[in-house]
Specification:
This protein is an all-alpha fold. The chain folds into 2 domains: 68 residues, Ribonucleotide Reductase Protein R1, domain 1; 33 residues, no CATH class. The protein is built from 6 helices and no strands. The longest helix has 25 residues. It starts with a helix and ends in a 6-residue tail after the last helix.
């Protein structure tokens, strides 16, 4: 069995989809090439270590993506926060009071006179 197939099998056996296994195999091969090794003749210990590093990074990335992205259907019951804030004039006035006079003038020129912030 070729090294590349062994590497791909490693990722498949660790729960990756076929597409992800292909991408991760390519990543391992690229890292081996960058380190000056031929992926087909690299020592087994070296590519196994790289496989473990790449699979760990892959699952971390997947975990973060799962936390960051929520399906739109899940948010349908919640109003948009911007609409709530803009509707409440007291909130905007409170925010504007926190700004210095120059910052308020810049915002006023930007929104009312459509000038650039510069």
């Amino acid at each position: 069995m070729l090294q590349r197939e062994r590497i791909r099998y490693f990722f498949l056996s660790h729960g990756c989809t076929h597409d992800d296994a292909e991408d991760l195999t390519q990543e391992v091969c690229l890292r081996l090439c960058r380190s000056g090794l031929d992926p087909e003749t690299a020592p087994r210990s070296h590519w196994m270590r790289l496989c473990r590093l790449v699979i760990r990074d892959h699952w971390r990335r997947r975990y973060r993506e799962r936390e960051l992205f929520v399906p739109l259907e899940a948010l349908s019951d919640y109003p948009a926060p911007v609409q709530e804030m803009c509707g409440d004039s007291g909130f905007m006035e409170d925010c504007l009071e926190l700004l210095s006079g120059k910052q308020r003038r810049v915002l006023q020129m930007y929104f009312e006179q459509q000038m650039s912030p510069d």
